[in-house]
Amino acid sequence: MTNAELIDRLIEETAQAPDWRSGWARPGHLPLFNNLGPVMYLTPAGDVVMNDEEDGPLRLADQAERDFALARAAEQYPELAYLKPLRPQLAATCDRCCGRGRVTLSQGTILPWRDGQEPKSFLYCPGCNSLGWTVTG
After folding, report:
1. Bridging pattern class, strands 102-106 and 92-93
2. pLDDT tens across 65-101, in order?
3. In 3-state terms, what secondary structure has residue 98?
4. Burial class of residue 49 (count of CB atoms within 10 Å of its CB; 0-12, 13-18, 19+)
5. One-letter-per-residue 3-state SS of 24-66
6. pTM value?
7. Distances (CA, A) of 105 to 38, 70, 72, 102
């Protein structure tokens, strides 16, 4: 199965999903992430597009947005895990999330995600676009 065929199949399945994705299904666009308004999508051609306003026009995601969206794709659709950006050899573990890609918020302070402690709410790490690593220089 080609990548486009896989994404097309997932688009069809998502239209029937029992969660938020079915409400954001649109032909030719696989919903990856919804942040209370803007929605990120993957097209069969492999482009990541998003809207800045609910029901607004779609635009091509920038590189940071694309990295974040492909990390969400890997979580939401295990078949797409190969799309998640690979950690380069020179990458450093993110200081904010300690490599976990998620942080918690406590009394206005961002705290690293801790293994074994499943907080009820979390934020995707803004320091690394939830990848768990950063590249400087």
Report:
1. unpaired
2. 999 999 999 989 999 999 999 999 999 999 988 898 9
3. coil
4. buried
5. CCECCEEEEEECCCCEEEECCCCCEEEECCCCCCEEECCHHHH
6. 0.83
7. 22, 24, 20, 10
Residue type, 93: T
At 31-45, the pLDDT tens digits run: 999 877 788 999 999
Q: Are 135 and 91 in contact (CB under 8 A)?
A: yes
Contact call for residues 12 and 25 (beta carbons, < 8 A): no
Residue 106: strand pairing partners: 109
What average pLDDT is seen over the chain? 85
Using CA atoms, how far apart are residues 41 and 30, in angstroms rounded to an integer? 5
Rounded-to-integer distance, Cα 86 and Cα 107, Å: 33
User: What Å distances lie between residue 67 and 36, 58, 72, 84, 89, CA to CA?
Assistant: 19, 17, 9, 7, 17
Characterise 28 by phi-psi region: left (phi > 0), alpha (psi -120 to 50), beta (else): left
AA identity, residue 7: I
